[in-house]
Design goal:
Shape: elongated
CATH class: Mainly Alpha
Helix content: over 70%
Radius of gyration: 16 Å
Number of strands: 0
CATH topology: Four Helix Bundle (Hemerythrin (Met), subunit A)
Oligomer: single chain
Distance between the termini: 16 Å
CATH architecture: Up-down Bundle
Strand content: under 5%
Number of domains: 1
Number of helices: 4
Length: 137
């Protein structure tokens, strides 16, 4: 899966972070395709996980600042995601296959970003137009 401008939500800083998540996913996809050993795949997964935690914290801070009405639900989905990543990583230790990993993140991105993130982006754009802007390409 590659970044496509249709994934942009219209908040430049968040779109840039989403692109960075795609870069981390691409590293995992390449590692899986090359059938790298677990320690290499684990390195890429750790990088992605740490970046995801950073990104989700930024998103949650933004939602707090703009007083997004559905903030608790959105942040709850972030907490579930981190739990799912931990579970998935534990499963992969026993059977190191990255196909599930790539599919999991691609599915999460499509469901979360293209639905939930667009909801809060619409709110931010309406209530705080100065925070939204043209997304970087």
């Amino acid at each position: 899966m590659k970044w496509d401008n249709s994934f942009a939500i219209g908040i430049d800083a968040i779109d840039k972070q989403h692109k960075q998540i795609f870069e981390h996913l691409l590293a995992i996809e390449n590692s899986v395709a090359k059938r790298d050993p677990w320690h290499i795949l684990h390195f890429f997964l750790t990088q992605l996980t740490e970046y995801m935690k950073f990104h989700l914290a930024v998103e949650e801070a933004l939602l707090e600042i703009v007083r997004y009405p559905d903030r608790d639900t959105h942040c709850g989905s972030h907490a579930r995601l981190i739990d799912q990543i931990t579970t998935l990583e534990d499963q992969l230790k026993g059977k190191p296959s990255g196909e599930n990993l790539v599919g999991f993140f691609e599915d999460w991105f499509v469901r979360h970003v293209l639905a939930s993130d667009r909801d809060y982006a619409a709110y931010v754009t309406k209530e705080f137009p100065e925070l939204s802007g043209a997304s970087a390409t």
